[in-house]
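User: Show me a protein chain along with its predicted structure.
Assistant: Here is one chain, sequence first, then structure tokens.
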Amino acid sequence: MSHVMNTYARLPVAFSHGEGVWLWDTEGKRYLDALSGIAVNTLGHAHPRFTATLSGQVGRLIHCSNIYQVREQELLADKLCSLANMQEVFFCNSGCEANEAAIKLARRYSHDKYGAGRYEIVTMKNSFHGRTMATITATGQEKVQKGYEPLLPGFHYVAFNNVEELEQAVTDKTAAILLEPIQGEGGVHVADREYLKQVRALCTKKDVLLMFDEVQTGMGRTGTLFAYEQLGVQPDIMTLAKGLGGGMPIGACLAIDSVAQAFSPGSHASTFGGNPLACAAGLAVCRVLLEGQVLDHARRMGEYFAKGLSDCQERHRVVREVRGLGLLQGIELDMEGKVVVAECLARGILINGTGEHVLRFVPPLIITQPEIDRLLDTLTQIFSKQAA
């Protein structure tokens, strides 16, 4: 009997070690990892430069309090701000904490500028922003919120990619709009570029903050370091996590200077957030992505993978739609996705589903064309078997 709380529907496999895009279970079987810890293992497993950086940092300093200056934190903040065209960062431990910080920052900024009555945040139906009380409230999915009522007041939900509905929801009580450039947990739905431009214009006109949750899309996942770079819209606040640490727990809430000033000493904090080890990991990920041509490689592999999935759709009627950007891809099926997930596991491929009918693929950014071909061939075999 396990003494771990039953909060996950775990699959019957445990892994002992990994290398590159491959994992080995405790029985010695090898698996192609097309999930990468749900978009976390950006550089795959046991990347030599990444592991050397972490090993060196562990030998020097793992943690110290944020009441002191943290050199690695300052270096990572400088790097991220220069890359994202923002001015300040708050570091934490996860995506939900980054989004929690963004929600608090938006409310604090609006309170300081407009007073107590302007605190509402508009989010999208089918979104996912985390598991804290604030972030499940921000999440536009009833199944995530069920049983945790009463939720926090001040959140409203509108349809994704529907600017008319959004305009109606924004009032003189609205502090911010929060959305994912690509809804990952919600089924891999990509925001329309024109829609995002209209959202940005609406926020500017109403003096409402625009917040992008790039927890899943950030750090090269879509083919650029941040998804917003391809979508042509600059947010006021952006959150990162998952791929930022390459496997080490770290989250970040970035903001433009005028907004970031709303936080002052004592207004928000995190004991472990931005510790030397986590920030060393983040710095290593940034350097490898940018200096090692990994970002360019990921962009090419994303295009190749998307084409392969589209070809799969043409050959198999069970595939309703292919959606995604870069190496964040999803396919909607005319069957239960968990059947395909289980079949892939049996054949040595790791993927997962979002909802009942959507498969999600978020492999390490170092995946190669032959490895993508193996994944596509496996899907073809499974779909052909189901059709038969």
